[in-house]
Amino acid sequence: MPSSTIDYVPSPRRAAAIVAAKTTAELSRRLRFGGGTALPGLVAERLDPGIVPALASRLGQGNVLVTGTNGKTTTSRLLRSIVEAAGLAPVANREGSNMMRGVAAALAEAADWNGRIDRPKKRIGIFEVDEATMPLVARAVRPRAITFTNLFRDQLDRYGEVETVATIWREAVSTLPEDVTLALNADDPAVAALREHARGQVVLYGLDDVAQATGEIEHAADARWCTKCGAELEYDAVFYGHIGHWRCLSCGNARPTPDVRVTAIEQTAHGPRLTISGSELKVNVHLGQPGTYNVYNALAAAATASALGFGSSAIGPGLLNATAAFGRQEIFTIDGRDVHVILAKNPAGLNQVLRTLPDDELNLALFLNDDIADGRDISWIWDVDFELLAGRVRSVNASGRRARDMALRLKYAGIPEKPGVANDIATALRKAIKLTPEDGALYAIPTYTAMLEVRNVLGKWAGRGKFWEGDAK
Amino acid sequence: MKLRLAHLYPKLMNIYGDRGNIICLRRRCEWRGIEFELTELDAGSPFDGDAYDMVFIGGAQDREQRRVADDLLHLKGAPLRAAVERGLVVLAVCGGYQLAGHFYRGADGDELPGLGILDLHTVHPGPSEKRFIGNVVVDWNGQQLVGFENHGGRTYLGPDAKPFARVVTGFGNNGSDGFEGAIYRNVFGSYLHGSLLPKNPAFADHLIALALGEDTLALLDDAVENAAHAEAVRLATKRRIMRVGGR
């Protein structure tokens, strides 16, 4: 419900919180604290714990949350682009700043000092939220819809177990108000299982085109057991990880028929072209990025948008505009070399990235950090199929705080090229760019905190602004 | 020469990058010209006590651990216990280590019976108690081993199990007695993953030599291994253990 701007009297505390958040954001940008992504929200929340519910309720078009292990950022961006194509102005948290404080920061930034939001009827909140924080944010913002992307092993040092997240989701979903719509990935058994606990509308999305199946289930697959009876699931098609057309031979549980589907994918030299169909939706869109995981991100965004009442005329152009923007954000041209930056922070994500790389003559730079935001435990690199790279590498560098663990992993993957090793990210990038032939491509694959630094360094070298300046609001 | 390794429950117990241990054993055999034969035995496959030189069992989530316990007790238990008494080399990590003991009492108080090849038991003190999470350095026979631990259960050794190592930094078995892991005959149990073996090549070679009945193995160039070991030890001892996340 949009609140009118006349009857609203801000509390001094709330005004102080908003002003403090805005000041902190400005200060940390000037002091180059990495875009000021978390601190302003932290400050605002400390001063006024009610700030998120209060400001979120002023967005006339309501709020949408996107959660899941992989694809949160991209799916949110696509969704943002779709609502923009429909003439709305989204309020969104910045990439990866997906705890309550990131949501608080975005809302404080969208408000003026006394808590008013400009053009409230046109505003819609689109927030990516951390898997474990989702219930807390959902209580605070009362979303219209929540999109679940997938559930993979990730940051086990923080969550304990994959099952812990599944349990948190089940409990949250079963207590959500009935007016919350869930967009669920039918092809991920752990996400699809949430439909049994939902109290409101459920929109299932899935990939129907079995020509995209890869065959074997990966080593890092997690949800390969039936959520109902515990038997091992059978797959008619595996698209990646444990995502695919699954069924349980023991109890009859199976992939539900999706409401919104990718019916066909045509692979082109410039990325896949998809046909997405739903009861009131038909779009044919060219994604600028390869990889089945990007197909799912587009599908999740389209399914959510469709459930929210957006039509093909917004969804098609929205997806198209957003993928064009990715290119600018993820490729830096330095000394005639195209440096592609691809975030990968868990086995399922990195396995997907490895499968989208060109076939040979690869120039690679891998960045492994073990900050809290990356996960302190780097064991997961042993679950990644680096063996896929053997015989395809031209040059490789390992960097980040755990550079030597990465170098060790590559040695045991049977990659004969000896990696350059440097903890310092700029040093490693410089070396990797030098080793890449002119007009060639370098693939820089960092974990989350390393990515911030990689983009920062490349942004400077490419003579452009800092990465956060290009980030849409 | 050939090393025959049985990997128990690769589908159910593979949560913390434990595959690295298998990859490490394979490569270190192959680089020495030792044939390496891997057999994956999941739930439902019987265990032939004479068919293997070494057994590996990794970590799992609580839910999967229950499925494994059932199979372990009723199908694989007896031949595995007999083979252990004959000197079979076993490496059990994390959840596998807990299952090698007499029982695991979960946070809900339910008791999960274990294999009992190690004289120990494990108790989860309840969901409000902190998990032991972080980098670990231990002293094993005068050498440092490094890894990462992540376990809610506290493990207590009985008289027939010897501690595997002494904690230098980290929590180890129970966070109070200063020990990590357990040994009985050629059975090694430990909470260390990371994966354990690649960064600790001396221990990997110790297992290979034991399994093959060799006194010494051909030397390998371990520069990359040693560099990773040194970096991990440095980070673990410098930063100590992080507080456990969650609210």
Features:
heterodimer, A: 473 residues, alpha/beta, UDP-N-acetylmuramoyl-L-alanine:D-glutamate ligase, Protein-Tyrosine Phosphatase, Chain A, six-stranded mixed sheet, 15 helices, globular, disordered N terminus, B: 247 residues, Rossmann fold, nine-stranded mixed sheet, four-stranded mixed sheet, disordered C terminus
Q: Number of DSSP helices of chain A?
A: 15
Shape of chain A: globular
Kindly provide the radius of gyration of chain A, computed on alpha-carbon positions and rounded to a whole number of angstroms: 22 Å
Q: How much β-strand is present in the residues of chain B?
A: 25-35%
Mean pLDDT of chain A: 88
Order of strands in the sheet with the most strands of chain B?
2-1-3-4-13-12-11-8-9
Strand content of chain A: 15-25%
Q: Which architecture of the largest domain in chain A does the CATH hierarchy give at level 2?
A: 3-Layer(aba) Sandwich
Number of strands of chain B: 13
- Biggest sheet of chain B: strands, sense, closure? 9 strands, mixed
Please give the count of helices of chain B: 5
CATH architecture assignment of chain B: 3-Layer(aba) Sandwich
Examine the coordinates and then state which fold CATH places here, giving the name of the CATH topology of chain B: Rossmann fold
- Which regions of chain A have little confidence, pLDDT < 50, spanning 5+ residues? 1-7, 465-473
Q: Biggest interface pair, residues each?
A: A-B, 38 and 39 residues
Q: What class, by secondary structure content of chain A? A: alpha/beta
Instruction: Please give the alpha-carbon distance between the first and last residues of chain A.
Output: 22 Å
Percent in helix of chain A: 25-40%
Shape designation of chain B: globular
What structural class is derived from the secondary structure elements of chain B?
Answer: alpha/beta
